[in-house]
Amino acid sequence: MSRISATFENLRAADKKALIPFVTAGDPNVQLTPAIMHGLVDAGADIIELGVPFSDPMADGPTIQRSSERALEQGVGLRDVLQIVSQFRQTDQQTPVVLMGYANPIEAIGYAEFAQTAKTAGVDGVLVVDYPPEESRELTKQLNASGLDSIFLLAPTTLEARMDEVARTASGYVYYVSLKGVTGAKNLDLSEVAEKIPQIRAHVDLPIGVGFGIRDGKTARAVAELADAVVIGSRLVEEIEQAAPEDVVARASALISEIRQALDNA
Amino acid sequence: MQMYEALRAYNLPDERGHFGVYGGVFVAETLVHALEELRENYERLRQDKDFLSEFEYELKHYVGRPSPVYYAKRLSEQLGGAQIWLKREDLNHTGAHKVNNTVGQALLARHMGKKRVIAETGAGQHGVASATVAARYGMECVVYMGSEDVKRQASNVYRMKLLGATVVPVESGSKTLKDALNEAMRDWVTNVEDTFYIIGTVAGPHPYPMMVRDFNSVVGHELRAQMPEEVGRQPDAIIACVGGGSNAMGAFYPYIEDKSVRLIGVEAAGFGISSGKHAAPLCAGKPGVLHGNRTYLMQDDNGQITETHSISAGLDYPGVGPEHAWLKDSGRAEYVAADDKEALEAFHTLTRTEGIMPALESAHAVAYAMKLAPQMDKDAVLLVNLSGRGDKDMDTVAQASGIKL
What we know:
The complex is a heterodimer. Chain A is an alpha/beta fold. Chain A contains 12 helices and 9 strands. In chain A, helix 2 (about 30-40) links the parallel strand 1 (about 20-25) and strand 2 (about 50). Chain A is globular. The two termini of chain A are about 30 Å apart. Helix content of chain B is about 45%, strand content about 20%. Chain B contains 16 helices and 14 strands. In chain B, the strands form 3 sheets. Chain B has a 6-stranded mixed sheet with strand order 3-4-14-9-10-13, with helices on both faces. In chain B, strands 1-2-12-11 form a 4-stranded antiparallel sheet. A 4-stranded parallel sheet of chain B has the order 7-6-5-8, with helices on both faces. The chains are: A alpha/beta, B alpha/beta. The interface of A and B includes residues 55, 131 and 158 of A.
């Protein structure tokens, strides 16, 4: 069983929901990222989504765009991100790490080499925003051959017929984009999420994570009532952006710990 | 309507929008359904007689088509080789080929019941062409433009505002065309239900490369009829500038099966290919995925998109339409590059010898024709697609000559 599936199974047994923070690798710098990741785990994170910086992040709002730009200014590329994961793995063999990013850095390395290197580094899953299932068969084949999960997005605009297509290709979990918009948007509609999740469950037999636009413990808790996992991205990246370097780990951890409490205390 | 008559053996893209390994639909999930809906509507309307005759009527009465072909006699004689002919897209309403496509897409938007259109723009030509059709059909129009370009193209920004469009300066990334495209995509993802995204070139996710090509292929279809009338045969070569590549694709498409006609695309070599500061992905880039399609890109070893340079804002883009990538690999079309200096020389030469001021984009094609013509016989015929007029480039040309207007 993959580290991701095992994590969801343990949480289910404990009657808990998964908390998945997102941070951009290399923001504010490469040295701090592993420390931030460890801090997030200590604060109650179950899985970490690690953003791979890209020059043209079309699906991201201003907050994550800026974090990507800060990482790129230091020349952080996909190979550096894999180094960061290796470093994280030296002291944490339990927490799954999912890479989230765009197609072109992977294209530049090549599918087979990427899948092997990512596996060796200790990556568990890969979510590529601009590879819908139809365009990612070859990559998914390589990822699965290396024992990595292929994680896909579902959106408010996804028709039910298409959910079957995603179900055939996806493993680990699926990521439901809670709103029509970019990361960090402020138009989250809980009733729409409540309507969509049962539809997805009818077609997809994987845990469902929900993200985009979840900014506080209260919303996280409400979303967790409906789904299996809550993703916190832009709100966390804001903390990192605003903190002085020596406070970054503490402030990121404090936010995640607050959301953990909101999720756990019924 | 002869729009599809040229289709014989050549039938790309496939139904998922692939030209060989290029093209496709590389977008976030939220847009998949919108693109599917767009594709279905376009597939239906491209065969609908009423839609096609409406399009044809608009091209004739609103755009002013057909555009003439013109023999650049003095230029040809001065160069002492092949005859150079110009396809006068500069005479269209709004001054470039761009309007062929925006008329087509606006009609499509209207048929789909979308009341809001958005567009990205670099130099502002596609933005102006989009704002123009939005005014014509009574639609709300928002144009995304890199803040660097807003500064460089103040008069086009004002033109768009006069036409009733909202121009949104984009501050992210390199603050140029590619970032404007990113921002337009973000708008579309947010307002996907009531908004139609008018992409300005033969790039982006399927069906855009096919659709923009089809709307612009009126250029090539007119050429096929005009050249035999004027010179008794088809040209030996068609030369067109390539940024995203819509004017080139429109001219090339009806000739793809006609192998006796050389198809030559001219990219922007900027400060020179070896300087690295250029916008010539077909000549010096490598394949990757950006803005919804797989194609040749300007990128570094990490797969990050690199900044481009060209004196012509319309060519200043790190990607290129996927069909050009396929035509390059298959050997059907040739791709070369002209640098800033050559384009400026061509601009001045054409202006002085023919009284025709080309857009700096089109001047790249003229520059290559000037290089090629002297090597050819006097009875050879080169057709240059003069995709736009140069009025918009006054400031840039003056500045390059050290003159402040």
